[in-house]
Amino acid sequence: MAKRDDLIAAARAAAASARDSAKQEAQSARYDAEQERIRLKHPPPLYVDLGEESGDAVADTTEELDAVQAGFRQRAKDEGKRFMLATDSEYWCCICFQTRDQKEAFLTALKILQYGDKYLDGQAVANELGVTLPKADIAYNTGEKSVDKKWLEFIPKT
Fold it and tell me: Which of 153, 158, 156 is nearest to 61 (CA)?
């Protein structure tokens, strides 16, 4: 009878662990989808607007070069701000444990393991824990590697 009870308890524990794991995977997928929605909502800025061509080659070229130069100046200005934010060392914290099991038990208990086990998005964790953070609308490089379509017209067609 004790062996049967042990088997039932082990099966229940395995089922609970599988449920918790599936729940965390679903939460992680929802988090990833939310991050993608945010990235799409805040696309990278367009630094150059070449406008319509007038047919006057000299005027169009002058206008395009002015637009490109203005784009470079604005991008440099924005990069300066981004650099200051990226190199500020006071926006993160570290919590250390004695073992990996302790760390994972801590993250699991707080229900934040789905956000990672080393580097976690502080906004997501704060939201999960019900903490209200001060507003900060910071545009990050979204990692978008596609070429701006406006620049394609400068590539020679061969």
Answer: 153
Q: How many C-beta neighbours within 10 Å does residue 42 have?
A: 13
Q: How far apart are CA 95 and CA 118, in angstroms?
A: 10
| Cα–Cα distance, 70 to 66 (Å, whole number) | 6
- Single pTM value for the model: 0.41
Helix (H) or strand (E) holding 65: helix 57-87
Each domain of the chain, given as residue ranges in start order, spans 2-152
At residue 34, the 3 state secondary structure works out as helix
- pLDDT digit string (tens) for the chain, length 158 residues: 778 888 888 888 888 888 888 888 888 888 888 888 887 877 777 788 787 888 888 888 888 888 888 888 888 888 888 788 778 888 888 999 999 999 999 999 999 988 888 999 898 899 999 999 998 766 655 555 566 677 777 777 76
Please give the DSSP secondary-structure letter assigned to residue 42: S
Query: How far is 24 from 115, CA to CA, in rounded Å?
Result: 9
DSSP assignment of 81-105, as one string?
A: HHHHHHH-TTS------SSHHHHHH
Say how far apart CA 4 and CA 8 lie, in whole Å: 6
